[in-house]
Amino acid sequence: MSPKPMKIRVPAIPDEGLSLDFNQETPWFRALLSERFSELRQAGAPASGHVDLNKTLQNVALSGDLRIALHLSCASCGKVFDSRLEVPLLRNLAPYFSGPREGLLSEEEEIELSAEDLEFSFYHNDELDLGEIVSEEITLALPIR
What φ, ψ does residue 16 adopt, rounded to 5°? Predict the structure, then answer.
């Protein structure tokens, strides 16, 4: 079962932007933490975030941060310890258009990605899923085991 999505309709983002604050008591964030990261945290442990969404035409700039208390075990010795994960959020989103792929790279060609390429995503059907973005960013920021 996946967490209840936190979908944001892009056309509903006001011209002045949208700011969202959330914590471990916010239903969609609590469900996401419980269902995807329960083995890394204690129930009710502090977790919070802030996101700013700014729209230019159909593109959306997302920025913010996450702070999550973790309860981890060392991969070498097995000792359990507490840690705090601080995750900066920065993502530029554009609408996904499916259409002819003429002129694009073939599957065999390789290109080198820049740091800016890694901060870019697409959204579908005039909606962005904040829960998925937050989940991806937490996963990428977790210490490697």
Answer: -80, 0
